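BUG: 3D viewer hangs when loading the predicted structure for this chain

Environment: internal workstation, default settings.
Expected: structure renders.
Actual: progress bar stalls at 90%.

Input used:
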Amino acid sequence: MNDEVSGRGAFSFEGREVPPVIRVSPGQKLQITYLNRMKVSSSEVCVDGPCMNMTNLHFHGLHVSPDSPQDDVISMMAMPGESLRYTVDIPLNQPSGLYWYHTHPHGESYQQDLDGMSGAIVVEGIERYVPELRGLTERILVLRDAEVDQDDEASRLLKTAVAISKSPCGEAVGRVGRIFTVNGVVRPRISIAPREKQFWRIVNASPDLYADLTIDSEKMIMVALDGMPLAYHNPGHATESVQHVLLAPGGRLEAIVMGPELGTQSSLRSLCVDTGADGDPNPAMVIADLDPTRHQEIRTRRQTSVADFQEAIFEPLPSRTIQKLKKRDAAFVVNFTEDKKGFYINGKKYKPTDDPMVTVKTGSYVRWQVVNRTHEIHPFHIHQVHFLVYGKGGVSIRDPKWMDTVNLEPGQSLDLIMDFTDPIIRGISVFHCHLLKHEDKGMMAKIRFE
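Structure tokens produced before the viewer hung:
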């Protein structure tokens, strides 16, 4: 719908403009009736002119079919007054973790995501991989944007509230356009008792702000990245102590956080991110404060789910398979380029009528290379699958990670092992830059799974 006051796009569920957290277990069906009640004539401007208010849904990170009525962002589209019905089969081997849903109409994705048309998806059962999580208070933190690009008092107050430094941050020039909110609130205070452990699940739902997350008081204990439990591919490595984690737009972090000592100030912050000479400012800011003095709220962890009665599934990738793939040339290379006229993958600007740029056979792991040939950072995202980021510029990474959205610095080349093994993923899908204005302006391409 369109918000009655601001005119912005919004999700309405059960009469409230609060996108619901969707919880589902492996093996279940996710059924959604999606009604487009936005206005025929929009007051908002998208990349090619006035927005048309067409819309659909993408289930970011889920290993599900790209065909209708599942995660189909190409042919499933609702114009104002129309509706869509999704039936998404969550596979039994879907990694248990944090995913998210957001709109994905090409040309209008950026504006709708900026408006807040997104929400969290939890695939239950992560306690099977990290038993320590049982009984911990769960917090789902959806990072979205508040605009501060005006020279008015409200913008100045917001920038002051999150303690944005006036010193330059990185090579990008220009003024700061937006700040992070948490579930729609600017710099909330999160109650957590001294030395209490909580389970925080954070999704960066911004269309183009990076979150380099850190907590003042001490390190976080990471248990999953981009919805993928660390133990899923490495049973002996269920947790990892981290000082900070960079979440590109679309990325997710799940970690155990410990409350500070009473009398100690501690905050969740995003550090400065250098986006490159052609990028947008991405300064350090305070996202939320940890408050050991506030009254504890009711725990938000659900008691049981179907996943609690399912056995944990582990799918380690043998080191010999990795070594064999490393010796091969990349089966496909993704080149990000841009100029004053648009953004491109392998020299082509995306059009909905395009044929697939690449066809892959399901049933195997495949080596890809992604290259950023621009002067700003870009996050690479592919629908339907995760990939192992194992090398930078031909040099192996000491601690490779499984992700579905990864950042590339200007001029950087990343070596990936794509997991194309799942036989249920057949049809035409897409991969793109997850700076959604870049995607809207052409930095996207189709892939056919056969």
